[in-house]
Specification:
284 residues, elongated
Amino acid sequence: MLVIAGLVILTGCVIWGFTHGGGRLGELFHIGEIVPLVGLAIGTILIMSPPKVLKAIIHHSLGTLKGAPFKKADYEELFKCLYELFVLGRRGGMIALEEHVMNPHGSSLFKKYPKFHANHHAVEFLCDGLKPIVDGRIKPDQLEPLMASSLRTMHGEHHAPVVVINKLGDSMPAFGIVAAVLGIVLVMGKIGGPVTEVGGGIASALTGTFLGIFASYAVLGPIATNIEFNGHAEMAYLECIKAAVVSFANGLPPLVAAEVGRRTLEEDVRPTSGELETMLKTLK
């Protein structure tokens, strides 16, 4: 919602400033400038991006309209899920977790927490972390670098769309100049014509430069930054899981392991220590 509000404000203010000075809105949009500019942008992004990154760009760009991916309530649900899982492992041994980590989509425990269960990346990350411990392939102290390696890979995947959008944003002013030059070339062919026609052609060509700069600094740059913030939030969610799982695997009690995960969070989504303890101790 904030992204939409921001776009409305910046677009509205630019249009108001132009029309307030006597300009007509239609004078800002000329098909001969828009088509080359859009074509250059689409062609460039297709050349730069593998299909996987193209899909990620669309997915993450639409995700900016939803706001922050995780709220305090989502973390509370996560801590309840982790705590219940840890208690089960504490009472029945790590082998008691096998049915849940080997078949997470059919897990009755995970299904009790729908937001977490619907987050396939988080579920897979949690289960991939616990599987080597459940089947005894690694020692608990070897788990942290294993999960950290997965986090680095996922961070790279999250960051790829940001890189592409930033590169496209950096190119848009130059693309605007290309579109403007095309318009100027046409105007030069009419240089001996009426002054109003020549002036109108130059004004039309300059809209290409305007649209390129506007798209770069008012649209693509802010969207890339928003995607980056959302990516940090998603990585923080996974980092919380990692911290709690590693702590539990190394022998800390379920409540303390959850507390370790809590301390990795930023203030706006972090429950207090008392809130966490009350919430988990009263969990049925």
